[in-house]
Every structure is written in structure tokens, then in C-alpha cells.
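Here comes my example:
=====
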Amino acid sequence: MPVNANSLTIGGLAKATNVHIETIRYYQRRGLLREPQRPPGGVRRYGSADIARLTFVKTAQQLGFSLDDISDLLRLEDGTHCQEASALAEHKLRDVREKIDRLEKIEKVLGEMVKRCHAHQGDISCPLIASLHEGITGTMTRVP
């Protein structure tokens, strides 16, 4: 449904963007979204520019950017600061790759623990529980 200029209430904006009203208010307090003037005796109204701004914020969040990062990106959104925006994205990409590396290490350690549990026989203590009590040692690398 096309949105006419400044035709939505905050509830309509929330519905149009699938964002809670309190989230919109929080973004306004953080300076990520404008808070329109309230006309005398009236209700604040939002339009397509506000939908686009919220879409930008939510998409950036889905890519792992923090609200501080998003604030920086919004300051660069005029299109003339591509180098700076690229630097922020490169930093985020490094962070993501480091997280993937840590998760792969965790996967390896947990996989080994599960194998030890499946190979476990008898009434002695559970190898997984014992490993957690002892800390990660031996052939398993320490996971941060």
C-alpha cells in the first residue's frame, strides 16, 4: 500500500515496518529517526521517508551493525562518503569472520564431546559433564 506524505500515525508506522511502537520511540530518542512536530491538538504523522529510514535501520541491524554503527552510517548516507561507509563495513566483516572462526571452534569441540558421549559405556560419569568440569584440555583447543 503506497503511503501518502505524512499520513501514518506511529501505530501505522509500526505496522507498516513491523516494528514495535516502543522501538520507534527508542530510535527517536537515539536520534535514528525524526520525531515529527505535533500539530496543535493533533497527532504526529509519519510518511514514506520514515518507512525508508526504519527499513535502513532494521536492515543494518540484520547485518550485525550496532545502533552506534547505524548512527554513523546514517550520517554518511548522502552518498558522498562511500570510503568511510566501506571502512565501517570492512570492520563489521572482520568481526563477522572472527565470530565464524570462534563458532567453528566451538562446533569442533562440541562435536568431539558429543562423540565421546555416544561412545561412552557403563556407569561412570558422563564424558561431556566431566569435560566441562575439567575445562577444555588435550587435543581440543581453548575456545574464547
The chain has two domains: 1-65, 78-143. The helical segments are 10-17, 21-30, 48-62, 67-75, 82-119, 127-134. The radius of gyration is 24 Å. The domain at 1-65 is CATH 1.10.1660.10 (Multidrug-efflux Transporter Regulator; Chain: A; Domain 2).
